[in-house]
Amino acid sequence: MSENYDRFFTLAEDILRHPAFQxxxxxxxxxxxxxxxxxLVAYSAHRxxxxxxxxxxxxVRGALLHDFFLYDWHVEGRRVRKPLFKKHGFTHAxxxxxxxxxxxxxxxxxxxxxxxHMFPLNWRPPRYLESWIxxxxxxxxxxxxxxxxxxxxxNPLLQHLHERLKKESRTRE
Length: 173
Known about the structure:
This protein is mainly alpha-helical. It is built from nine helices and two strands; from the N terminus they run H-H-E-E-H-H-H-H-H-H-H.
């Protein structure tokens, strides 16, 4: 399992370490932070992409950034009343893409993953198989998070990444 984690970390490291991505720890996504949610989606989608021999790097990067909207949608939704098609579920993919494009160099596949991860709420269907995978995996991870009993359930992937980020940060100092 550690080999899979290491391969994933290598593909994800530049995004995981980025200060703007780290800000997602402050925002929640059901019973997880957006940071945790994005990692779980990216890792699960990566495993599928690897098994199908697809573009692993684009899947990891696109999945990590699929919810990179950088605001607390729970607070925003209560603070401002919006018409249906202006609500978070319909608009956050575009916002995530704009933020991701500002902070990172994205290829067309990564952009499609981010923009289309909410299909069918976003009306245009995914163009690439990698985008369909992230769309599907995101739904499964979200459902699992929503029905999870505790916010603090142990996750070996998150523990491994946390330890690796901490260890390598100390080494760089």
